Amino acid sequence: MTTHKYGVKLFFTNPSAKPLKDFIPVFHGWIQRQALPRHLLIDVHDYSHVHHGPGILLVAHEANLSIDEAEGRRGLVYIRKQPAPLREIVEAARQAAKLLGEPFDAGTFEIFVNDRLATPSAGQIAEATGGRVAQKKTDPRERLTFTVQAH
Amino acid sequence: MTWKEKLADKIPADWGREIDIYDTQMELRKLGKIDEKLFAETRLRRGAYGQRYDNGQRFDGFQTQHLKYPQTGLTKGPDTMWDAPGMQRIKIPFGGLNPRQLEVLADVAEEHSDGILHITTRQDFQLHFVHIEDTPSLMRRLAAVGITTREACGNSVRNVTACPLSGICRTEAFDVTPYAKALTYFLLGHPDTQDFGRKFKPAFSGCEDEACGLVHMHDLGGVAKIRDGKRGFKLFVGGGLGAVPYQAKVFADFLPVEELLPTAQAIARVFARLGEKQNRARARIKFLVDKLGIEEFKRLVAEERKILPPDPRWTQFPAVKEKPLKPASPLDSHRPEGFNAWLETNVYRQRQDGYATVTVACPLGDITSTQARQLADFVRKYSGDSIRTSVEQNLLIRWVSEADLPALYTDLKKIGLGEHGAGTILDMTACPGTDTCKLGIASSRGLARELRSQLAGKFFTMDAAVKGLRIKMSGCFNSCGQHHLADIGFYGNSRTIANRKVPHFQVLLGGQWQHNAGSYGLAIGSVPAKNVPIVVERITERFVRDRQGNESFQNFITRIGKAESRKMIEDLMVVPAYEKDPMFYSDWGDPREFSMGDIGMGECAGEVISALHFELGAAERMNFEAQLAHEAGQFAEADRLAYDSMLQAARGLVHEQWLDVPADPATVVKEFRARFASLFQPSLAAYLFRRHENAPAATAEAAHRLIEEAQLFIEGAHICADKVRQQK
């Protein structure tokens, strides 16, 4: 695995509980407090008008975080931009989810490779995450995506 | 594996070389070997633009935070942090692209941006939150499918726009696409377009009366005309929006198509030579035309035209043939739910019987990467390979057999792009505003989102005359949202109430979208941002109530007059005290207390870097490449590059006095000797003469010495350039 450009999606368990726009002040609050350790939080962007899009986006130097609605399933997406091991990327996503205070599915999450030059195997993802991993069947043009079931 | 390696055989050689040069310049900037202003203009001319907060400061609602980016001290332009997210603009000439290009755009948006493709008001795409070091890969991926970002920003010829209905329009004189394409690639990187004081925006339209290419608001515009069976253009020059909009002047009532490119070249030369370079606010060609008067401007262009060296490309217009995928077939009676409303607003019947063009309404000009890929599939399934972007921030699918419209509508609905209302009051245009623009004052996108959401609920009960109105908004007075052309336009400003800032929008009424942006709206007063929805409601209600017969909105506003128009909104201009209603003191979609503190220096104007400065920058880059070759043991190559770097610097100086100086070494050296020998330090000039007169020496030592000499020669060229400037 030569890339650090991984995305992690953690799914909300009660996805319709809160309107998307309610997350805007939450993320602004994070920036005010620089609440996410080892991240330089920069700005918030509203994509709530886009169908199944990144919803509300929090831009950091190290990663983009969003209340994502891709495939109609709301979750917190963490996309790494700066080098870090996959294990730390997953941990950072979990930390952000905890900070958000929304209930998440702790058992199953997704990892996608945001770099079309890299093709890690399910085994490599399993080794890094310690979970049971299966490659998700998607449109081949979409990013390589794995479903991870945490032990 | 890198994208450079993977796509090596797919990128046109000259485009690949340009991106390699840009890559090298990035490395040189990181090493501190090129000046930040020069690098800024370099990246701008490749479409890599600054973005809000890139000076490392952001007001968080309580205080201004200093954003501590890792590479402190490294900048990509004056007061622009290297690590700060930026914007990448991608030129789409005449808005035309194919499904494969759309797929690659989707991929790069996902991997280097935020998974959103934003369509601009000039048919470009923009990606936001892009790291500067990702831009070369992004450019290579686009180049491999025939898209260049060259000259998407900076003081250059920007995207050549054209009516998205060109070729299928029922009222056009002829299809302007081949001419827009020819002009694009003729002027792209042309030596005569490298020394502008500001940007230069061309546009084409197939007919005079429709909105089409918005020719009247462009620096250079052509409206297709046929005279005596021959094709030509009614040519306009010197239009522009910005803070003070100018209507373009007629340059020629009929210019034969063979004269289009040379005339554009001559205009570029006059603009480069006489256009303002110091005062950016007066540097667009509209000010030059205004200062000289159109007749004198035409005389100067005619003189320039006479001395242009002939160019075979002047009459080479590429064939742009679109072939429909399916035979034409009429729409049958099967109508899915919601189809009729969509058909009414989003479908244009082509002049080719049985075919239609579908406008895919993209809210605020945004689509996701996934939607873009699915759209590419639909284009392949229903149309073939023809997509166009529009200046109303939408996508058009052309050549759809009418029988396929219900199926296409159903498919679009499934991916959230089946919204009706294209070209209506719901189809708002908004520039990025405070979301990402360094110059934004108020949130144009936040306002558009709010208005859209409020009006969508009332659309079906609206009077037809109101449905047809256009609303456009900009985050500041610079008009990127084209607010001057809307029936109801807004631009962001600010007012101070009891020491607190309040976001406002200036209201403009009566602009004309039709007739190629026939007239501009007039400002009637500024209202707090939070009152804008009530302003729209009040104005539209009054229009419905007091309209006389089929009176247009423009005529209605003219008839009731400015004073009466202002009366409609006067009470809404009042801002309640903060203690009474703090909501007014924040902007749409942004809970932070409103501030003007985040406004930075815009990069729209680019850095004013002379062509000579670029030539000398290129010489330095070649010298650096010579060093790399030397390091790699390629001494002959190092020698060649060092020699070329001296020639490049010498040619740059000569080019200041002789625009058409050829590139052959003998002429360059001869002209340099004749023109600059007396101004150039003799010992440094001798380095060039000696190398020019002697055979290359390919030993390590000789190559190394030549590299050193070439560096000194380039220093001498800088000093010589200063002397020339002082003499001027």
Describe this structure in words.
The complex is a heterodimer of chains A (151) and B (728). Chain A has 151 residues and is an alpha+beta fold. Chain A has one domain: TATA-Binding Protein (2-Layer Sandwich). Chain A contains three helices and eight strands. Chain A is globular and about 40 Å long. Chain B is an alpha+beta fold. Chain B has five domains: 3-143, 2-Layer Sandwich (Alpha-Beta Plaits); 168-198 and 208-315, Sulfite Reductase Hemoprotein, domain 1 (2-Layer Sandwich), CATH 3.30.413.10; 339-414, Alpha-Beta Plaits; 429-593, Sulfite Reductase Hemoprotein, domain 1 (2-Layer Sandwich), CATH 3.30.413; 611-727, Nucleotidyltransferases  domain 2 (Four Helix Bundle (Hemerythrin (Met), subunit A)). Chain B contains 22 helices and 26 strands. The model of chain B has no long low-confidence stretch (mean pLDDT 93). The chains are: A alpha+beta (151), B alpha+beta (728). The A-B interface holds A 5, 21, 24-25, 28, 31-32, 34, 40, 42-54, 57, 59, 61, 64, 66, 70, 81, 114-117, 139, 141-143 and B 1-3, 6, 52-53, 58, 60-62, 65, 67-70, 83-85, 103, 106-107, 110-111, 114-116, 128-129, 131, 363-364, 366-368, 370-371, 373, 415-417, 435-436, 445-446, 449, 452, 589-592.
Chain-wise SSE layout:
The complex is a heterodimer of chains A (151) and B (728).
Chain A: E1 6-12, H1 23-33, E2 41-47, E3 55-60, E4 63-68, E5 75-80, H2 86-100, E6 104-113, H3 122-129, E7 132-135, E8 145-149
Antiparallel strand pairs in A: 1-5, 1-6, 2-3, 3-4, 4-5, 6-8, 7-8
Chain B: H1 3-6, H2 13-30, H3 36-44, E1 48-49, E2 57-59, E3 64-66, E4 75-77, E5 80-81, E6 86-90, E7 96-97, H4 99-112, E8 116-119, E9 125-130, H5 135-143, E10 161-162, H6 177-187, E11 202-205, E12 220-227, E13 230-237, E14 249-256, H7 260-274, H8 285-292, H9 294-306, H10 339-346, E15 347-349, E16 355-360, E17 366-368, H11 369-383, E18 387-389, E19 395-401, H12 405-414, E20 429-430, H13 444-456, H14 464-467, E21 471-474, E22 488-497, E23 500-509, H15 514-517, E24 522-528, H16 532-546, H17 553-569, E25 586-587, E26 590-593, H18 611-631, H19 635-657, H20 665-676, H21 682-693, H22 700-727
Parallel strand pairs in B: 10-11, 11-12, 20-21, 21-22
Antiparallel strand pairs in B: 1-6, 2-3, 4-5, 6-9, 7-18, 8-9, 8-17, 12-13, 13-14, 15-16, 16-19, 18-19, 22-23, 23-24, 25-26
Helix pairs in contact in B: 2-3, 2-5, 4-5, 4-11, 6-7, 7-9, 8-9, 16-17, 18-19, 18-22, 19-20, 19-22, 20-21, 21-22
